[in-house]
Design a protein that fits this description.
It is built from seven helices and no strands. It is mainly α.
Length: 178
């Protein structure tokens, strides 16, 4: 993935955390947030499958067909699958955000940054052997979500040049490391 791709994912999830992190939610509401996305993913996957079969783009085996029919369950599109799992976890994450004070929130975010973002980033060999999965898993989305919720809850202010510097630093680090 290009450097701006992973940074873009983190920013998207951070914005999601900013807006959803302060809301009271339950698993029913979370499911209603993902059901339309799940259906759209199925439809797009099936359209791509039909086109590939009609125009003979690739040779399919049984595993490929199974993944195409159930793309979210089998992680065919890593971002959609991870994002859906993240949204389904929002009731639990939002309880933690409400119950933890500022210090404990920062400790939780720090732990997640180390084990869900830094370790998989350094390892980056495509294996899920990092504690919370690789860079393309829901684990990597937990800390940006909680950071967004933290910014919203505590009205954390960041100057534009600081935000640009952090984003640029992340992109440069990812580009030089990968």
């Amino acid at each position: 993935m290009r450097p701006w791709g992973q940074v873009g994912v983190a920013l998207f999830v951070l914005i999601t955390g900013y807006f959803l992190g302060g809301q009271e939610t339950n698993f029913i509401k979370a499911w209603h947030r993902v059901d339309k996305l799940w259906v759209k993913t199925l439809v797009y996957s099936w359209i791509i499958l039909i086109c590939a079969l009609i125009f003979h783009f690739v040779v399919f085996n049984k595993r490929d067909l199974l993944y195409a029919f159930f793309p979210v369950i089998f992680d065919e599109y890593w971002f959609i699958t991870s994002y859906i799992v993240l949204i389904l976890l929002t009731p639990i994450l939002n309880i933690a955000i409400r119950k933890f004070d500022r210090k404990n929130s920062l400790i939780l975010i720090g732990i997640l940054i180390v084990f869900a973002d830094i370790v998989p980033f350094i390892k980056n060999d495509g294996t899920p052997n990092a504690p919370l999965g690789n860079m393309f898993s829901v684990g990597a989305m937990l800390s940006p979500y909680l950071i967004g919720a933290f910014i919203h809850r505590y009205e954390f202010k960041l100057k534009m040049w600081q935000a640009c510097a952090v984003t640029l630093f992340g992109a440069v680090l990812e580009y030089t490391w990968c």
